[in-house]
Amino acid sequence: MQHGKTTEKAFQLNVSSEIGTLRRLLIHSPDRGLGKVIPSKAQDWLFEDIVHLDTMRRDEYDYYVKILLYFLDPDKVRGRIAELGPASDRNFFKPDHPAYFASDKVVDVQCLLSDILADEVIKTKLVAAICGIERTSFAAQQRLQSYDPVELAKILISGTLPDDAMTMIFAPVPNFIFTRDIGIVINDHILLNKPAKYARTREALLTQYIFFHHPLFAPYRDNIIEIPDNEHVFLLADSEVNKDLTRSTLEGGDVMMIAPRHLLIGVSERTTLYAAQQVMRIVFQKNLVDTVTVIQIPKKRDYMHIDTIFTQVKRNVWVLLASLGRTGDEAKKRDVIHFFAPKDVSEDLKILQFIKGLEHKPIEIENLEDLLADISKNDLGSTEPVQFIYSGNNEFPFGAREQWTDSCNLLALKDGVVIGYDRNDKTLEAFRTKGFDVLKASELLERFERGESSPETIENTFIMLPSAELSRARGGSHCMSLPLWREKL
Ligand SMILES: NC(=O)NCCC[C@H](N)C(=O)O
User: Which H/E stretch holds residue 325?
Assistant: First the structure.
């Protein structure tokens, strides 16, 4: 029997901002594959360290799930918070357990995967495709075919068999917890990812199968956007390939549906200029937006995607890394060495805005703050002054330190209510200074339980998620979410 089988009824798919009240999203709870990351492979697998899986789950990610459920599907958790604490058996949080919360608002990709694997044809095709990219033996492929859909979903994600030896049949995909990067909803369309890094290839394949085969997405099958590679590149020697201009790689952290008719695309370590151009062509052709703004950021591990350097908090409030903005790092500017040292041009951020029909006349925008202020005022109709909160309160060296641990990577649950990591003290201080309540996730859940606050009434709040283990994986709460439906602003 399948547990946590997601309802077969098709559901609404629509995202037209980063801050409209969140109604449905895709997540993936840390699976057993994360516990298999070893020091020598951590960097290849895009982790910064090995993680302690049980702590990551009980003390950190489970709080993320409880907060999401309280906001999106409260009947699942209201009145049960005390029994769902870190000391519980965690069955409520295990997608393959009969006691799983099985929400159709907070949806784990693992459940969707096990649903589609119940179809023998899909199962055979997907197992063969994965065994192809993972170069497994024919015998291993046959063996995989024999597992039931729920177990097979776990194996395909974690790479580990459920035998006594917990045999690894192929590498894990530990970054699958960062569902943001597998796809992005653009109004009622979904743009699929083309990962830049080999470690994330299997995620893209699993996602492709889920979106094309799961009945929930059946009404949107014609709305799935995939971007092709440039065919000429197949004929060029590697030495002749300028990857940025010819290769299509794109990860969801670089795409933000920032306003109903405005899409932001980052060009970064992970997303190429060529991919950005392809997406722009397609979204204009399909009339999904009127404006595409391309933001080129330094190709650096620290920044990875644009959502690691800024996210939106409220219609008129943004959090960002000052060293890539107009304000710059004040402390650094006062330092005499930095003042006279040659400028590092790679640190430059470039912004070009394209308007549908006038693509040949892009507008250059000088800095990030100008772009974000323009979005607040002109796209989102904010009448309040636009405010910027800087990583590390823009104090040297905390801006860079806290950006590294995702101070700028926040998920808005509604306009002005965000969830992010608890470890970025200076950034949190800056939030307090701007008038935000800064609360631990556990404390907020207790307040909800006591009826002192509610997801409907709460305003201007930063919800702190414990993050000692999660931050070693180098992604924050924005990365750990793929919004499928947000209310229109
Ligand atoms: N949108 C994001 O910035 N996602 C974070 C991805 C972290 C993951 N370890 C990676 O390097 O791909």
Answer: none
Separation CA 315–CA 175 (nearest Å)? 30
Radius of gyration of the chain (CA): 22
Q: Pairing mode, if any, of strands 22-27 and 310-314? A: unpaired
Q: Are 467 and 442 in contact (CB under 8 A)?
A: no
- pLDDT digit string, tens, across residues 57-77: 999 999 999 999 999 999 999
201-213 vs 149-158: helix crossing angle, rounded to 10: 150
Q: Best mutation site among 47, 304, 321, 408 for ligand 1, i.e. most ligand atoms within 8 A of its Cβ?
A: 304
Question: With the C-alpha atoms ordered 478, 192, 293, 474, is the resulting torsion angle positive or negative?
Answer: positive
Q: How sure is the predictor about 425, in pLDDT bands with cuts at 50, 70 and 90?
A: very high
- DSSP class per residue in 243-269: HHHH---B-GGGEEEEETTEEEEEESS
Is the pLDDT assigned to residue 438 strictly greater than 90? Answer: yes
Q: For 22-486, which CATH class?
A: alpha beta
Return the pLDDT at 226.
97
Model ipTM? 0.98
Mean pLDDT within 251-262: 98
Best residue among 182, 474, 481 to mutate for probing ligand 1, ranked by most atoms within 8 Å of CB: 474
pLDDT at 235: 82
pLDDT tens string 307-334: 999 999 999 999 999 999 886 544 455 5
Are 51 and 347 within 8 A, CB to CB? no
Distance 384 CA to ligand 1 centre (A): 33
Cis geometry, peptide bond prior to residue 162 (ω within 30 degrees of 0): no
**Nearest one of 464, 378, 379 to 425, comparing CA atoms:** 464
Contact 225, 189 (CB under 8 A): yes
> 173 in ligand 1 pocket by Cβ < 6 Å?
no
The maximal CA–CA distance of the chain, rounded, in angstroms, is: 68
In eight-state DSSP terms, residue 61 is I
**Residue whose CA is closest, atom 12 of ligand 1?**
46
Measured in Å, residue 178 CA sits from the centre of ligand 1 at 6
Q: The whole model's pTM is what?
A: 0.95
3-state secondary structure (DSSP) of residue 460? coil
- Please give the Cα distance from 321 to 310 (Å, whole number): 7
